[in-house]
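Final report, closing paragraph on structural work. Over the funding period we assembled a curated collection of sequence-structure pairs, and we close with a single example.
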Amino acid sequence: MRTNMSGREEPVVDRVTPSIRIDRSSPVPLYFQVAQRLEELIDTAQMPPGFRLDNEIALADQLGLSRPTMRQAIQHLVDKGLLVRKRGVGTQVAHSRVRRQVELSSLYDDLDRAQRQPRTDVLSFAVVPAPDEVAVALHVPPGTQVTAIERLRYAQDEPLALMHNYLPAGLADVTAEQLTARGLYQILRDAGIQMRIADQTIGARKATAAEARLLEETRGAPLLTMSRTAYDHSGRAVEYGAHVYRASLYSFELTLVAR
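Its predicted structure, as stored:
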């Protein structure tokens, strides 16, 4: 077991890296041969998510390669999102990327349907005056009381998204305790509030120091961003969300129709 940055323990699959054969007479670069073999072991689950590789020096010695060659092979798979380097742990096989259709749905519900074991830490929960950006999104006067929620969402114990949501105060009886066990949209549905349509914007930017710490990324790592205002059947704005996702573990998918 190891303790992650949220203070929770999580399993590390710590085994000797399976043997890798290389062909020195092949025109294929040695680093790429190693990377291809490691990718095959990952794809066939011989090296499952959480599997911790031997360190680069040990791997280089096993294969009779230089350390720079071994580092290049590892970096190739890190760049593809198949491996992840973690301080104090080493190089591990990453959890598979979460692919999410762009539709009016809850991240919690999507992860649950995909059997990705969603978990939530509620970082803050308070009724506050609406900041200007939130007031505009919810179509209320600046300073109107809103419920502000900040959550850290995990998938299979891997931090995935940092989420800020705002609801008109008094909209529904939502508690921090409920949000640790269920998704926000499920709670709103149970309260009789049905989202019908939403305005959504998707973008990207670099992680701040605080975001990187919570998401276990390096400062400046790429993040996907999503902001959304959801409306009910009467056209009332019932929720505004501003979320960031780890680009190494998450992507949006769209279906395009020709006209």
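The first helix runs from residue 30 to 43. The chain is about 25% helix and 35% strand. We thank the funder for supporting this effort.
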